[in-house]
Amino acid sequence: MPQVVTRFAPSPTGFLHIGGARTALFNWLYARRLGGKMLLRIEDTDRERSTDAAITAILDGLKWLGLDWDGEAVHQFQRAARHREVAEQLLAAGRAYYCYATPQELDDMRAKARAEGKPPRYDGRWRDRPASDAPPGVKPVIRLKAPQTGETVLEDLVQGRVAWANENLDDFVLLRSDGTPTYMLAVVVDDHDMDITHIIRGDDHLTNAARQMQIYQALGWDVPRMAHIPLIHGADGAKLSKRHGALGVDAYRAMGYLPAALRNYLVRLGWSHGDQEFFSTDEMIAAFDLAHVGRSPARFDFAKLENMNGHYIRTTSDAALTDLLIDTLPHLPENSAFPQQFDTAMRQKLLAAMPGLKERAKTLIELRDGAQFLFAQRPLPLDAAASGILDASSRQHLAELLPRLTALVAWSPAATEEVVRKYAEEKHLKLGQVAQPLRAALTGRATSPGIFDVFSVLGRDESLGRLADQIR
């Protein structure tokens, strides 16, 4: 059995959108599971819309998601001479022909088809005419001499048997009049030359499959196995749009999602493995197959993604999460109150606070904002909730606690907790009635990691200084 070779073949006319990312992931998992290769092809034949910035965004998005490819990326535009060679090969074999139909004639054909309620089709008028009939000054296209009877049948690995009546498929263009190849021809030639064995792509390409199979058959080439996966819809069942989450992968990074969480969420969009929700990368590779990809559109749900991201934040090691947050800061929306550069001491402070911070965060933005108090300058700015907590009565508690805390010999969560609990008991207060003013004074917010952990992370001098600021 030949080695499995899949490919991801994006068009660089924009960012790597979420549907493309899932297609790349499915190709990557299928190849990795079967010990094969996934190749990357940039389909940049649309020269007007293809941009270097889009190519960079696609490559960055794949790398961020942790999806590597084998070998160098292939650029389709650079293979135009090979595509022309194959079109001329078909011409010489009598499997294609020159067509001299003018733009006006093609418009008339489309108008006639519309009037008759039929799909627009080329009527084959140059299929059997000699070149001597060619009108002067018209540059011809090359069209495939497609079969006119019978069926073109695809045994799709997801959709099952799909058949098209050949009489409904016209002689489509392989090479334009300026000598540039069409998408249909370029894809077939590239997939053949790259030894692609399996084509996994969105089911919006299903109608292309029939035409591409006809090119394979005309050339006598083996047709790769194909799997057309349903598209992603919004939670409301409508076609995915920007309001649903049809954004670039870079936007998900900017929203504070972890690559591992997004990867896990994407693999579960349209593929199932029993009731399992969470997969390590190794588990994904071991379990992935095409037999359990559904035929119905998957529904994108931000709430589920956010919950999954929260799970990954909680289960990622403190050190790895600290590094990930610091590395991601340049991609997050700006927060001028949070440092962009970290020295060793600052990283250690963030690392020490991470166990309490990550329990309350569902995104890296929430994690960063929750950690803001660590690096705030004195006197600490208070948000509205913290200002509301620090009334005269609360400040009195702080004033009475300050000398007790100052007198501590050992500064630790256990030591500060003992002081605060003892004070609350003496005053016949619930612990929260004392802890909340402390939290407001130390963090400037009404929510934070455990208050005794906050004392520990800030250290003696900073903690006592912040309390003194609020008492004044």
From TrEMBL:
SUPFAM superfamilies in the cross-refs: An anticodon-binding domain of class I aminoacyl-tRNA synthetases, Nucleotidylyl transferase
EC number(s) on file: 6.1.1.17
Top-level taxon of origin: Bacteria
Known catalytic reactions: tRNA(Glu) + L-glutamate + ATP = L-glutamyl-tRNA(Glu) + AMP + diphosphate
HAMAP family documented for this protein: Glu_tRNA_synth_type1
Subcellular location: Cytoplasm
Motif ('KMSKS' region): 239-243
Name assigned to this protein: Glutamate--tRNA ligase
Domain Glutamyl/glutaminyl-tRNA synthetase class Ib catalytic: from-to ranges: 3-306
Biased composition (Basic and acidic residues): 115-131
PROSITE patterns: AA_TRNA_LIGASE_I
One GO BP annotation of this record: glutamyl-tRNA aminoacylation
